[in-house]
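input
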Amino acid sequence: MLAGDLYTFQDLLTDEETATVKRVREFLSTEVTPIANDYWARAEFPHHLIKRFAGLGLAGTKRSSLLDGWLALEMGHADASMATFYGVHAGLAMGSIQECGSAEQRERWLPSMASFEKIGAFALTEPTGGSDVAAGLRTVARREGDTWVLNGRKRWIGNATFADLIVVWARDEADDQVKGFVVQQDTPGFTATKIDNKIALRIVQNADIELAGVRVPEADRLQEAHSFKDTARVLQQTRAGVAWQSVGVMLAAYEIALAYAGERKQFGRPIAKFQLVQDLLVRMVGNVTASMGMCVRLAQLQDAGIYKDEHSALAKAYCTTRMREVVGWARELLAGNGIVLEYDIGRFVADAEALYSYEGTREINSLIVGRAITGHGAFV
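output
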């Protein structure tokens, strides 16, 4: 049981689901956590772990939303970068094919992606388009017979430097609608260049993508992606995963701070005995508990089939905001030790900034919820 699960939410999992969580937790604690700081410092990706992730048998497996969410939590608890790698591959890329691909396309691509033989990426964000990408997508696609020609640029595309299959979203010049295309890494005209000098998610290999006359066969266009509404269906699912990841990050920060408070001595006693330190810890575990409760209810809504955009948007906005507070308080508790990788908190503080922003900023997600509760859109 995680020390920060004060209300024992994990008890809501079945025995079989709990066994899966324990298996994943053991893998992450032995394979990911010990090397995370080293790879983070070098901004390199541990490619040797890909086959080991495959051995977990997680991608492409039908599970309850609660278990899916808890696994995202466990990955965030170990390392936000590896959680992002998995979320991009199994959530955004595979999710796009699952939601928007034909039966033939799902059969053609998903098995090799589930086994991690083929790694996926998801290319939506552009250099000049983030929050306004729904209306401002500049990457274009032009049909020439049974081939599509793609031109444009993408930015911040995780996994893109080594992914085999990249789901690229582009605006059809003929009908002005957003469509999805599966582009292979070695396609002429496709270039992915690693973004250097990041201060967050340094293990994630984000890339700038250039699409210069990239030719994609009609067979590789996602057949059920007809407009941005279809893209949004994918984001609705993965946004919930980011909320769960952020709970994992704040759980880790709280647990590190709690352990440190019991060991660190000042004025002749452990700092855990000081009232102000206990107040910080209680604020942390309060944020963790509230966020976890929201995510658990979100999973229940998903499994009940009554899940809406505003549900995932509120969870993403709320949980990542609370996460930001928790990692900041944890760094405060560790004082100077909180800014060195040796104590882990520095990595979580930096990585939290990326989770706070990607898959919809707090402001954009607030507007999604605001539209739902007032009936009025206020995006422009």
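quick obs: The beta strands are 120-123, 140-144, 147-157, 165-172, 178-184, 190-194, 207-217, 265-266, 269-270.
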